[in-house]
Amino acid sequence: MKKRVLFFVLLFITVVNAKEYDLVTGLAIDEGIDEIKENCTVCHPGRFIVVNGGDREFWKYKISVMQKGFGLWDLDKKTKNKIINYLCKNYPQKTNVDVDR
Ligand code: HEC
CA neighbours within 13 Å on the CB side: how many for 50? Predict the structure, then answer.
């Protein structure tokens, strides 16, 4: 009986935590995904953007690199903020850094 309760608790946690992924870009569905689609995945696939991850500063820097070097246009403040929020929430610093070694 106890095992069954545990099973349902675990199932509940899994369902609640499960992220949904956008089928086209492979990125997590969350506030800001539309802005990412309009401004980022037009040039490269979503998974390519998120090979690495990081905090706000990391993503701010990446966006400035895109703008200075790779032809990303000016983003208005609101859009930029949404994109940064989306990226640092869903794609923070990776912990499994050993994978590439
Ligand atoms: C006009 C085209 C263009 C747009 C728009 C664009 N990028 Fe890029 N991006 C590139 C190119 C080209 C590369 C490949 C650079 C290379 O080969 O090193 C790249 C590479 C990257 C990389 C991986 C390289 C690295 O330094 O880590 C990240 C992360 C990235 N882009 C993020 C973004 C984000 C976030 C956006 C949206 C805000 C965006 N890009 C929009 C052209 C673009």
Answer: 20
Q: Is the CB of 27 under 6 A from ligand 1?
A: no
Instruction: Check pocket membership of 40 for ligand 1, CB cut-off 6 A.
Output: yes
**CA 27/CA 46 separation, integer angstroms:** 6
pLDDT in tens, 25-82: 999 999 999 999 999 999 999 999 999 999 999 999 999 999 999 999 999 999 999 9
Residue 47's alpha-carbon distances to 6, 10, 19, 53, in angstroms, are 35, 29, 15, 11
